[in-house]
Amino acid sequence: MFLLLVDPVTGETSPAALDSPLLAADDLAAIRGDGVFEAALLRDGEIRALEMHLARFANSARLLDLPGTSREVWEPALLQAATEAPDPGGDRVIRWFLSRGREGTGLLHGWIMVGMVPQSTLEMRRNGITAVTLTRGVPAGLAHEAPWLLIGVKSLSYAGALAATRFAKGRGADEAIFLTTDGFVLEAPLANVVLAQGDTLVTPDPALGLLHGTTQRFLFDRAGAAGWECRYARVRREELFSADGVWLVSSTRMAVPVHTINGTSLPTRPGIHRVMDELIN
């Protein structure tokens, strides 16, 4: 793992050992989860979809009234980290973080980490996963009515998402898929949901209240160029069980096939996973 400290104001950077002091005990990232982050695939020295990640990073910070996401600071720092981090071969993940810092100081804190994509994630890509549907407890579209809930923001407050995954594992599944109280599909705790329906790729509309995924957008760009119709829609729970293929899509997972939901095996069109792999890779 490689660590690069970043001053979000001046752009000054300095590599640091992983066991070096990083956060004060009262840093708001640690005690409140008050900050934002991004994670991108680092493959062959290139940060995948960097433009989209930087834009989402800035938007997440804006919704938290958090300064410090200047592209002039973060882009060169990220390129520096991608260049200086050891490369043993294979997919890596680059993550960058912005904390509001210590309460009352106004001194922002930033850092970048580069490491290998976990073996468990590579196995998900190869073998697919099982999932259960869980309610998020909110109706469709709540993000617009209550923006202070930060639905669709990539903040450091991931306790709820991780709790959902643990709950799914406790029920014998690998992952959760969130639903609204009125029965629409949202997302997984750490990924977007994409369905194949004939020659169309469909993903839940971000306006329903979910994070607009960079990898999902990257996939739609490539699929559209390859002749697929791609659309955002209000996807009903039932459509998960009739689709030609279902995937969880994220920067590190890429496209992970979902082969079972709530104990029911999903029908899958022959060859569709190979097609998806070609599109997203």
Query: Could you state the CATH homologous superfamily of the largest domain?
Result: D-amino Acid Aminotransferase, subunit A, domain 2
For the sheet with most strands, the description reads: 8 strands, mixed
Supply the number of helical segments.
8
CATH class of the largest domain: Alpha Beta
Number of domains: 2
Strand elements, count: 14
Estimated helix fraction: 25-40%
CATH structural fold name of the largest domain: D-amino Acid Aminotransferase, Chain A, domain 2
Average pLDDT metric:
95
Provide the β-strand percentage band. 25-35%
Structural class: alpha+beta
The coarse silhouette is globular
Give the name of the CATH architecture of the largest domain: Alpha-Beta Barrel
The radius of gyration over CA amounts to 19 Å
H/E series: EEHEEHHEEHEHHEEEHEEEEH
Distance between the termini: 24 Å
Characterization of the model:
- There is one protein chain.
- The radius of gyration is 19 Å and the shape is globular.
- With 281 residues, it is α+β, with helices and mostly antiparallel strands.
- The two termini are 24 Å apart.
- Helices cover 28% and strands 28% of the residues.
- Strands 7, 8, 9, 10, 11, 12, 13 and 14 form an 8-stranded mixed β-sheet that branches.
- The protein folds into 2 domains: 2-117, D-amino Acid Aminotransferase, Chain A, domain 1 (2-Layer Sandwich), CATH 3.30.470.10; 122-280, D-amino Acid Aminotransferase, Chain A, domain 2, CATH 3.20.10.10.
- It has helices spanning 28-31, 50-63, 71-84, 119-127, 142-145, 159-170, 214-225, 272-280; strands spanning 2-6, 13-16, 35-43, 46-47, 92-99, 109-116, 129-135, 175-179, 192-197, 200-204, 229-233, 245-250, 254-261, 264-265.
